[in-house]
Amino acid sequence: MSPSATVIQANTKPVQLIYAGGTFGSYGRPLAPLAADEFLPALQSLLAAPEQANFLPTISWLDNSLIKDSSQLTPNDFVHFYQLLLAAYAQGSRRFILITGTDTLSYLGAFLAEAFAGSDICIVVTGSMRPLLNSEVLNSYQVDENGDAWDNLKESLRLASAGESGVKISFGGESWPAQTVQKIHSQDFMAFTGHTRAAYPANSYIKWLADTRRQHWLDDQQLLKVDIEGRAQQARVHALYCLPNDTSVLANQLQALLNEPPCGIILLGFGAGNVPYSPALASALQAAYEQGHMVICASQCPFGGVSDSYAAGSWQYDYQVIAGGRLTIAAIYARLLWLLLRYDSPARRRQRWTYNVNQTSTAIKKR
Hints:
The protein has 367 residues and is of the alpha/beta class. Helix content is 39%, strand content 15%. The two termini are 33 Å apart.
């Protein structure tokens, strides 16, 4: 069978929809999330309406026991969704839509992008700023025509139906590779933004995998299943936010983490990654490295990332800090978390991060 024939065959399978909670499924006065056994039949009924038949792909539902406000999600929960999708992918499904809350939508999307790099899975992550159902109508479930949920879902279904490999976030009529996305507004329908010029691992998805290669990829993941579940119990990613304080404040915050098990630390610098220097902070950064922690410098600015152009920022890289480049905070968190789960030693995690950066540089040079 040719690759093109296999892709066509794969795209005839249903798009699997996962409901994980959030504003999308809230209803009533005051607004509160509906339980899955109440919300999903209402959603199924709306999707089955005759007027939707012309544009909707065939849809099936992937049972999900974890439905909560997205602000409450933890590394264990991220692993839950990874394994839920992995099991369905292993059974031959390839196209998915995950509906979740907007608070951590970009974090979850970026994490799944890290976890499924190298596969040919298609995952579209979406949500909404207003509920799908109109709470002004209490005697029946009707779509809120003034909200954004229905449009976000329809666009996500269109993307998932096309089946392009990779993890995307779809919101407000746009879509982007998940690792590039960040939430920029707490109330507007255009709550997220991203960009399409993503490098590794967005370009590490395979357009089509032969059955043997896909099985090899799945076997590798299954071998790590127990290890990943166990590491999720201890995985921690911390954030240290630079403010115009005395330098001792930041040094003391970092010092307090040194006795923790090896973890990820995001150092949120000013501008292009500038961090106030002090001998105490420099010493703490070196000690963090020696004890297995990974410290990544990111920018507080929403765009542009970090660079080593300024002496005020470049000094930290002499003390084993890793530059976060143009990665968003959500993408840095996701990559750190996946490295903590996937690899068993600080040296391997650091090596893999370096490999990722090299892949990014190569991809950019080829453009």
